Amino acid sequence: MQPFTRHETPRPPPDVVLRRESRRSRGSQVAGARLRLYRLATRFAPLILATAIPIAAHAATLPLQGVFLDDDEIFSISFTLPAPDNIAATSLGFAGGIDANGVAVPAGGFATVLSLFDTTGQLVQLAVGSANSCAAAPVDPAGGFRWDACFTAAVGAGSYTLVLSQDGNVPYGPSLSDGFSMTGQHDFTGLNYLGTSARFINADGSQRDGHWAMTVSASAVPEPAPWVIFPTGLALLGVLVRRHRADPLSSTSSGEKS
After folding, report:
1. Is the model's pLDDT at 234 over the cut of 90?
2. Are 187 and 71 in contact, with CB atoms under 8 Å apart?
3. With contact defined as beta carbons under 8 Å apart, do 133 and 127 qualify?
4. Long-range contacts for 133-138 (Cβ within 8 Å, ≥24 apart)?
5. In this structure, which of 57, 115, 142, 196 has its CB flanked by the most CB atoms within 10 Å?
C-alpha cells in the first residue's frame, strides 16, 4: 500500500501575488469609476435634455443666462426672423436685475459686448458696455459703472447671429468669420489691468466673475433650433464630470510598472 502523498500547488512568488492583487484592485477601481460616471450622467440627464428643448416661439422675450470660465469665451445664438422686425438685446450680468421670467440676476459679472451679425455674417450692430452704450442700464452697486450693454435695431427678414462677449473681446473684423480679438487669450483682463494672470478683471482693477445674463426681444422672438442649445448641455456635463470625478487610475497607473 502506497503511502498517501499530498500534492500541493506551487505558490507563486510574493511579487507575482502583489501584481495580481494590484491588477484586481485597479479593475475594481475602474468599475467603480464607470459606475460613478454613469450615476453622474443619469443625475444630470434631465438638465441636458432641458437645454435641448426648443424655446416656445412667438414669445415676447427670450431670457438667457450662463457662466464663462475664461476671459475669451463667447456665447452665440443663431435665429431666423420671418419678417422685418425690431430686435432688442440687453445684458444684465454687470449690475444685476430681474430677467423676463422674473428671475433675479445678481450683480458682479463682467462688462459685456453685444454683436449682431446678419445672414451674410456681416456685423450690423455693436454695443460695448464700457462705452456707456446703454443709458437705461442700472448702475453697478459696487463700482458705480453702467457697463451692461444694450441695443435696438430695425432689421429685415433673415437669419442672424447674436454674440455676447466680455469687454475688450470685440469682433476682429466686419465679418463673423474674422473671429474675436482676444480668442486664445484666456486671462487677458488680468494681464491688461493687473499685469498678472487673472480672469474677469474690470478696467478699474476690481475683481468680477464669469456669470452673464441677456434678454432678447422682438415682435416674434426667434426660436433657436435644438442644435444651437444642445452643445451647452454637453459642455455642462463635461465640466461637471471633470469637477466631480476622482480619477482612480491616477495613483496606480503613474506609480506601477510591470
Report:
1. no
2. yes
3. yes
4. 134/90, 134/91, 137/90, 137/94, 137/95, 138/95, 138/96, 138/97
5. 115
pTM above 0.70? no
Tell me the C-alpha distance between 76 and 221, whole Å. Answer: 16
Q: pLDDT tens across 192-231, in order?
A: 999 999 999 999 999 999 999 999 998 755 444 433 433 4
User: How far is 234 from 220, CA to CA, in rounded Å?
Assistant: 28
Q: Which of residues 19 and 254 earns the better pLDDT score?
A: 19
Q: Percentage of the chain with pLDDT > 90?
A: 54
CB 125 within 8 A of CB 216: no
Using only C-alpha atoms, the chain has a radius of gyration, in whole angstroms, of 27
Three cell numbers written together for 162: 447674436
DSSP the chain: -PPP----PPPPPHHHHHHHHHHHHHHHHHHHHHHHHHHHHHHHHHHHHHHHSPPPTT-SEEEEEEE-SSTT-EEEEEEEESS-EEEEEEE-TTT-EE-TTS-EE-S-B--EEEEEE-TTSBEEEEEEGGGT--TTSPPPTTT------EEEEEE-SEEEEEEEEETT--BSSSBGGG-BTTTT-TTHHHHHHTSSS-SSB-TTS-B-BSEEEEEEE-TT-----HHHHHHHHHHHHHHHHHHH---TTHHHHHH---
Residue with cell 473684423: 173
For residues 241 and 33, what is the distance between their CA atoms, to the nearest angstrom? 11
pLDDT for residue 256: 39
The residue behind cell 482612480 is: 248
Grid coordinates belonging to 73: 469665451
Residues 6+ apart with CB under 8 A from 191: 185, 197
Instruction: Give, rounded to a whole angstrom, the gap between the first and last alpha carbons of the chain.
Output: 49
